């Protein structure tokens, strides 16, 4: 079966034809650095879409198999199965020189990387493709992106859910259909480059216990150390570094691996050594003491002030879904905080947020002319394109940033006719309008467009939504996904900062970025779905009590600006394959290279998300220093 349909003139079919290795794993849990693979299936497919190989096996993980009610793999069933190291060579041969494909590919990739590392072998994968990310680009009219839902949509038979081999066979059908749709829409494939993974990256690390105390500020000359002070050490020490850190943590100090303007004191026996930490301490005016003085002060650390804690109530409802329907806190555009406002304590910043409420009929978009429409704006200078997208939202529609199956209308600004997507738009017979259409849009829906049963709530810049409380005992892992138009000349990095009530990170691990994509507790993770999509996954129920706010930002690597990139779209969903509950399309102005996308913060018993859309001319390191991290270290 061909991967590319012959029923239309597919563009550049070579971009869709690869040697593929489709993978599905069943695991003892969800954390790759801790849990193990219980079963694996691999199917290889050639560039022509024909299957070339198949392998599956149960595996003996040497540990408890975890949620048997999900995968059905009991200890008895796994007894006598091979361990992963015995089949790693065969699996590696099937993966070699092929693109790894999986549904939520980073999950399967990370588990395989850990298993290969435990077997003292390299994972032979240089590229991967996530069918979740691919279908987020295609955007079919499904209510979610679960494997079974997509299988039903694409008419792929499914026999045994959570069976690795059957799931992989289903995945093969979904891949073929998704690639046909990508070719029909002329979408670039979201291939992710997978550099070699060092074994040390997969050594399980115990979570660092968060410091229980607020940072009282800097050490005063002749004054005592206080619990919660942020302390960094640099250079050679007479005592083992681990011993110094252990004693300091036991005393209630917050040990950091970098220096910022929030550092209380730097410990070094070589104050003039010129190390990066020493230079930063000098630049920021951070006090410097030697090891002997530090040990003397450790003997009499003064009590600190504990972090404020907020009880997050878990709602109990009779609804069958995992979360209650989204309740917008406001459907009007709130003022976007200026740079100075974002430095306020979270309690002060949230005081202006309206109380949660269900929208009254007048708040609804149902009666607006673009309700249920997805409008793609092409051409124009950035400011004009941003204004047009704002008009789309004001008229009740959703502003698209890429061509997809859900786009219902196209607005053409000056120069838009030269966009490479116009040929495909014409072939798809999508309605194309001039800018005046936005002032009085027609209400005729394109006949070929299918609609979902429930569209995501459109959040304007500055708008706020409550994240629904979980139903039952398990809370969802919220996914904040940022997407943009594919870029040829620059890369965009999504990052997250976990901030306390003083708008500081409590430890270096509270800065999540491409170099540290997961905090030690695994409660916040950076996931890469492709070169034009990244996700921050948050286990809000398990965040440290000191974490009051999570800031999600994007930064451009290089000299390009968001004026060149265009809009960034964010969506928030209760899980990787659930439908987005809310969506916002954010435009910075012209010269910004760093952009605050969203903030997730505690307000009483609930968590809220605000769509920010605030750009800054400075680079990511300046934003990081503001929150207490020096990424140069």
Can you put this structure into words, describing what you see?
The N and C termini lie far apart (52 Å). This protein folds into 4 domains: 13-202, Nucleotidyltransferase, domain 5, CATH 3.30.420; 230-298, Rossmann fold, CATH 3.40.50; 341-360 and 455-626, Lipoxygenase-1 (Sandwich), CATH 2.60.60.30; 373-439, BRCT domain (Rossmann fold, 3-Layer(aba) Sandwich). With 633 residues, the chain is of the alpha/beta class. Helix 5 (131-138) packs parallel to helix 7 (164-185). The chain has a 6-stranded mixed beta sheet, with helices on both faces. A 6-stranded mixed beta sheet has the order 15-24-23-17-21-20. The protein has a 6-stranded antiparallel beta sheet with strand order 16-26-25-22-18-19. Strand 11 (374-378), helix 12 and strand 12 form a beta-alpha-beta unit. Mean pLDDT is 83; it is low at 1-13, 198-204 and 311-363. Helices cover 21% and strands 22% of the residues. The longest helix has 22 residues, at 164-185. It has 15 helices and 26 strands.
Topology readout:
Layout lengths: L19 E8 L9 E9 L5 E8 L9 H4 L3 H4 L5 H12 L3 E4 L2 H14 L8 E4 H8 L8 H7 L10 H22 L5 E3 L36 E4 L7 H10 L3 E3 L8 E3 L8 H9 L3 E2 L1 H8 L47 H5 L23 E5 L3 H13 L3 E3 L8 E4 L9 H6 L4 E2 L23 E2 L5 E4 L10 E6 L7 E9 L11 E2 L11 E7 L2 E6 L10 E9 L4 H4 L2 E6 L8 E5 L7 E10 L2 E11 L3 H7 L7
Parallel strand pairs: 1-4, 4-5, 7-8, 7-9, 9-10, 11-12, 11-13, 13-14, 15-24
Antiparallel strand pairs: 1-2, 2-3, 5-6, 16-26, 17-21, 17-23, 18-19, 18-22, 20-21, 22-25, 23-24, 25-26
């Amino acid at each position: 079966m061909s991967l590319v349909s012959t029923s239309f003139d597919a563009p550049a079919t070579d971009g869709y034809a690869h040697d593929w290795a489709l993978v599905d794993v069943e695991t003892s849990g969800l954390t790759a650095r801790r849990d193990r693979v219980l079963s694996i299936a691999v199917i290889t497919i050639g560039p022509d879409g024909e299957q070339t190989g198949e392998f599956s096996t149960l595996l003996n993980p040497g540990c408890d198999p975890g949620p048997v009610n999900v995968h059905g793999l009991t200890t008895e069933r796994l007894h006598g199965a091979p361990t992963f190291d015995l089949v790693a060579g065969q699996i590696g041969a099937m993966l070699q020189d092929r693109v790894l494909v999986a549904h939520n590919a980073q999950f399967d990739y990370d588990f395989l990387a850990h298993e290969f590392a435990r077997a003292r072998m390299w994972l032979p994968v240089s590229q991967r493709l996530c069918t979740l990310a691919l279908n987020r680009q295609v955007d079919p009219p499904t209510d979610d992106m679960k494997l079974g839902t997509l299988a039903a949509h694409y008419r792929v038979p499914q026999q045994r859910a959570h069976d690795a081999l059957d799931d992989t066979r289903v995945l093969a059908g979904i891949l073929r259909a998704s690639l046909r749709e990508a070719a029909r829409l002329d979408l670039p494939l979201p291939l992710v480059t997978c550099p070699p993974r060092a074994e040390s990256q997969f050594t399980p690390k115990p979570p660092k216990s968060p410091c229980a105390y607020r940072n009282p500020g800097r050490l005063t000359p002749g004054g005592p150390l206080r619990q919660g002070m942020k302390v960094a050490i640099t250079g050679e020490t007479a005592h083992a570094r681990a011993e110094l850190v252990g004693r300091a943590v036991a005393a209630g100090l917050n040990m950091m691996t970098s220096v910022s303007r929030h550092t209380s004191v730097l410990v070094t026996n070589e104050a003039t050594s010129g190390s990066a930490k020493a230079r930063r301490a000098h630049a920021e005016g951070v006090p410097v003491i030697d090891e002997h003085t530090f040990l003397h002060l450790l003997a009499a650390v003064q009590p600190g002030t504990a972090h404020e804690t907020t009880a997050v109530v878990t709602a109990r409802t009779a609804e069958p879904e995992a979360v209650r329907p989204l309740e917008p806190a406001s459907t009007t555009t709130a003022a976007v905080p200026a740079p100075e406002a974002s430095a306020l304590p979270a309690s002060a910043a949230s005081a202006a947020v309206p109380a949660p409420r269900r929208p009254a009929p007048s708040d609804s978009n149902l009666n607006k002319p673009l309700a249920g429409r997805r409008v793609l704006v092409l051409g124009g200078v950035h400011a004009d394109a941003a204004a047009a997208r704002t008009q789309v939202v004001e008229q009740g529609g959703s502003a698209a940033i890429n061509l997809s199956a859900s786009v219902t209308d196209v607005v053409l600004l000056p120069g838009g006719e030269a966009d490479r997507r116009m040929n495909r738009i014409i072939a798809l017979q999508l309605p194309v309008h001039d800018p005046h259409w936005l002032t009085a849009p027609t209400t005729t829906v394109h006949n070929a467009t299918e609609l979902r049963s429930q569209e995501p709530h459109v959040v304007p810049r500055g708008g706020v939504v409550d994240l629904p409380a979980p139903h039952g005992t398990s809370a969802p892992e919220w996914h904040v996904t940022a997407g943009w138009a594919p870029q040829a000349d620059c890369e965009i990095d999504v990052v997250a900062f976990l901030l306390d009530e003083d708008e500081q990170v409590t430890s270096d691990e509270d800065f999540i970025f491409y170099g540290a994509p997961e905090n030690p507790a695994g409660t916040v993770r950076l996931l890469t779905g492709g070169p034009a999509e990244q996700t921050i996954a948050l286990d809000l129920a398990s965040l440290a009590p000191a974490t009051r706010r999570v800031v999600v930002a994007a930064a451009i690597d290089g000299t390009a600006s968001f004026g060149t990139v265009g809009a960034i779209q964010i969506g928030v969903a209760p899980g990787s394959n659930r439908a987005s509950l809310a969506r916002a399309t954010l435009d910075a102005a012209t010269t910004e290279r760093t952009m605050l996308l969203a903030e997730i913060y505690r307000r009483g018993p609930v968590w809220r998300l605000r769509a920010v859309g605030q750009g800054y001319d400075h680079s990511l390191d300046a934003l990081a220093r503001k929150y207490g991290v020096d990424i140069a270290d």
